[in-house]
Amino acid sequence: MAKTKTTVLALMIAPLFAFSGGSLLAQTTEAPAEAPAEGGAPAVAADGASADGLSMGTEVASGSGVGDTYVAGTFEAWEQRCVRTESGIDPCQLYTLLKDGDGNSVAEFTMFSLPAGSEGPAVAGATFIAPLETLLTAGMTLQIDGGAPKAYPFTFCTQIGCVSRLGFTAEEVDQMKKGATATIVIVPFVAPDERVTLPVSLKGFTAGLAAVDASNAAADAAAAAAAPAANE
Predict the structure, then answer these.
(1) How do residues 150-202 score in pLDDT, each as one tens digit?
(2) Do residues 111 and 206 make contact, with C-beta atoms less than 8 angstroms apart?
(3) Domains and CATH numbers, the chain
(4) Strands, sheet with 140-144, edge to edge from the N-terminal-most edge strand
(5) What pTM does this model have?
(6) CA–CA dist 221, 145 (Å, integer)
(7) Strand 140-144 to strand 196-201: parallel, antiparallel, or no bridges (unpaired)?
């Protein structure tokens, strides 16, 4: 079943906000604790600290609200990540975290199918998020196993990284399903003569993409069924 434009837009936006809820820079603040009330329990300051300086903790959001991202399934190197909707039938995408040769987490790659009948040769789309200190003019290259590498430009940058939006033909998607490893190469801004090679394991890719497509088909059906009621 074809995916609606609304579903595809949600999938393109989701990775940009998946980890943007908290700052990477820790901050420390101190506030004077209130004195305990006479004959009562120690007072608790607004920041959750008691009079003796011990933190009583603050409740953390569960991440179960509309618009939140969650992991619905794991397929070897890939995760099925979905965006919560009011209907509870949620659109999803296929996600993997990319690491360099030293095991450092460097970039993110997400993928999803496009609606049937979309303009152009692409049948699937992907979002690649690289670190901010990436040489944007060098773009990024992607190679599937021993195939010819292809170059893709970066589109824009946000606080969480620089984004490249990729399109894949049906043949390229089949290559990924049959393949073992894809390789992404980016260039550091501070070292333009160097290359950072990021292997992309394709283990679990076929099953993961099938699960994502099934979830999106169900989400599209739910959206289509709800549309007439919303217009009444």
Answers:
(1) 999 999 999 999 999 999 999 999 999 999 999 999 999 999 999 999 999 99
(2) no
(3) 5-17+66-231 (2.60.40.1880)
(4) 150-152, 140-144, 181-186, 196-201
(5) 0.71
(6) 36
(7) unpaired
